[in-house]
# Entry
Amino acid sequence: MSATVSTSGSGKRIPIYPDAQLHPATPRSSLRIAALAWPILVGQLAVIANGVIDTAMTSRFSATDLAALALGASVYISVFVGLNGVLQALGPVVGHLYGAGRLKDVGKELKQGAWLAVAMTVVGSLGLCFPQPLLSLAHASPELAEKSTLYLRTLALALPATLGFRIYGALNTAIGRPKMLMVLQVGGPLLKLPLNALFIFGGFGLPALGGPGCALATATIAWLTFLVAIVVLRFDASYRQFGIFGTGFVRPQWTALRELLKLGIPMGLSYLIEVTAFAFMALFIARLGANAVAGHQIIANFATVLYMLPLSIASATGTLVAQALGATDAKQARHIAAAGIRMAAIVSVTIGCIVWLARDLIVRAYTPNEAIIASALPLFVFIAFYQLFDSVQVTTAFVLRAYKVAVIPTVIYAVALWGVGLGGGYLLGLDPYGISPDALKGAAGFWMGNSASLALVAAGLLMYLRVVQRNYR
# Structure
């Protein structure tokens, strides 16, 4: 494998892997993945820590506010993740350009991504400001619906900054510099604790807002981190090679936007399908009462924390595969993909066993409420064994995106997660026909359906990856 590539027309050779940690001489792909994955993991855990802090602090305010947080967060995630997924198309596109040594083209793609983020902000803000159609599915009380609506409308203020920061994140991950992203992400939880305490419980003349106070803290932090990211891109010398600033105003270009949308729309849909499977679980479980949905929220939140480890491995694997493909080394790309999927599976099985053994300590760290604890504990069995399926499917999905393949995976997600996962969970959990076993009635039925659907997704994506790799040119 060549470590350099000629730039078009200049004859100058630019390193494909400028960062030492990604140099192709590194003896094992797993080591390269780990070197890139750990800062991604730290950054993602910092982001998720904000949700953990929200859940833990709101649970100490009231069960109603925790339920409102669960409903509001479910709707927000559904909106944000779909939009964010479209922007994530920048990752494989920039990865290919970076692997090929086309550094100036990276800046051009980022500017088109910024135009795309503006459009996504308009669409997302409308959904957050008018969430009643989704909230109505929960049959929530007027108080619960009011608090959830206020939570979502406050988060609409954060959306422009959050999507803008995603562009910064996509760039740094694609070029193998996740530490630059990690530093800003770690600062979020440090601000979240005092801001949450102020806005949730009140103080210094401010009223106690409860659950919606979390959204106000989130919006404040989102704008701070976004502004810092802009300053870093503008003044850090290491980014000058991409021509992000100082290259003049660039209008939206349909050719570049079409490429991003061609990959980004199915990516966004796949993210949306995956997240709405969880979101609608919360909406349907809310019909069973505040304690049931609060218990589900704790398990869902902890499952999200665990998901960050395979997600970081998946992101690192996808980045290295995209760079290898950009450098026209399909053999190396296949080797990296296999190493990443194997690593994610082994790590997740280990964590699943640990979680099962420590389940009581974990749930009590979230809340002292015995009724909520009783609702949450039985669900840990699903977290313990579905980790394997989740880790394999997410890593395989990121590898496929590195190959710029996203349509068929989206179809697989839709059939499995919506059909088997959500549909099967509805039949088992709410038991409209009286056929569900007692052990699977309630929230457990929804988690069983979701686990089975993830197993189908993992198997389907693995088989399709083999087809893509065999036919790749």
